[in-house]
Amino acid sequence: MFGGQVALARQSAITNLVNSQEKFDTPATSLWKHVYLKKLRDALESLKGCMTRRNKDDVKETIAMVEALAVQLTQREGKLIQEKLEVKKLATFLKQASENRPFYRKKQMSRASG
């Protein structure tokens, strides 16, 4: 019985972890990150028109950095989605394993007594 409670607690912890990650990494949060990067890029583009040659180069470099950040953000989001799927699969597997384990023990006990 104690082993079943441990498995249930483990399953509950995994479920809580998945749910807590989903609260912070929502599509809306991701969208806002992209919106802010776009607004920053647009502001830098408009600023570039007001600058002298040397400062224009600095602004161009900064715009390139913002674009690189947008690419990194997209890549990280892709990895995060993959990790979430893997965690959900693992949680499902552990849940099934913990549900099947008592059945397996009962089967072994009946063989031992019979």
From TrEMBL:
<dbReference type="Pfam" id="PF16712">
    <property type="entry name" value="SCAB_CC"/>
</dbReference>
<dbReference type="GO" id="GO:0010119">
    <property type="term" value="P:regulation of stomatal movement"/>
</dbReference>
<dbReference type="InterPro" id="IPR039640">
    <property type="entry name" value="SCAB"/>
</dbReference>
<dbReference type="GO" id="GO:0003779">
    <property type="term" value="F:actin binding"/>
</dbReference>
<protein>
    <recommendedName>
        <fullName>Stomatal closure-related actin-binding protein coiled-coil domain-containing protein</fullName>
    </recommendedName>
</protein>
<dbReference type="InterPro" id="IPR032009">
    <property type="entry name" value="SCAB_CC"/>
</dbReference>
<feature type="domain" description="Stomatal closure-related actin-binding protein coiled-coil">
    <location>
        <begin position="29"/>
        <end position="100"/>
    </location>
</feature>
<dbReference type="GO" id="GO:0007015">
    <property type="term" value="P:actin filament organization"/>
</dbReference>
